[in-house]
Amino acid sequence: MSPFRTALLLALTALTLGAQGRLRPDRPRKDPSERPGALRRDRIATRLHEIRARKLRDTLGLTEEKANAIADRWSQFDEDSFARRQHMGLLRQQMNATLMGPGSEEDKNKRLQPVVDELAGLRQQQEASRKRFEEDIRGSLTPAQQSRFILLVDEFQKSLQEAIQERRKEK
Q1: Which distant-in-sequence residues (6+ apart) come within 8 Å of 99 by Cβ?
Q2: Are 80 and 131 in contact (CB under 8 A)?
Q3: What predicted TM-score, i.e. pTM, was given to this entire model?
Q4: How does DSSP assign 54-73, residue by residue?
Q5: How far apart are CA 60 and CA 54, in angstroms?
């Protein structure tokens, strides 16, 4: 397994556990005793940040400062997105339970409507957040760097999906 894939597996673990907190040493940190597993998640999140910053420097030719700023923004997007995706997953489970459970179609419709509306709102928020993230990043890059960034994100996502599949096979 490549070091990149190994790091992604570690990052996946951090995201699965709801990684939050400090991404770089100069960031303020919550008291570790307040969060179970926080130190491990912080180390994984820090490692993911370092990988992203290095890839940004190497692929886009950015300065360390600019690469760290983009990696910070990317990590923030991940954290925000993770919470929404988790919530959307719970709503989907709730919808499935309602659909599979007892009750008339009319009763199910009444119970499902607010859930469907909430899910639709979260999907819109997720899309708006993604657009803001891309605009924030693109605004500070040349067209060639933007192209490289798009390809880098695609590569990162593909590797992450492969890592998820490998992790599921291990379970």
Answers
A1: 108, 112
A2: no
A3: 0.66
A4: HHHHHHH---HHHHHHHHHH
A5: 10
The span from the CA of 6 to the CA of 163, in Å, is: 8
Q: What is the pLDDT of residues 66-121, one digit of tens each?
A: 999 999 999 898 888 888 999 999 999 999 999 999 999 999 999 999 999 999 99
Rounded-to-integer distance, Cα 164 and Cα 57, Å = 26
CA distance 50 to 68: 8
Place of tokens 């593909």: 158
Q: CA 119, 124, 128, 129: dihedral to nearest 10 degrees?
A: 0
What does DSSP assign to residue 17?
Answer: T
CA distance 102 to 92: 17
**Chain centroid to CA 23:** 14
Mean pLDDT, all residues of the chain: 82
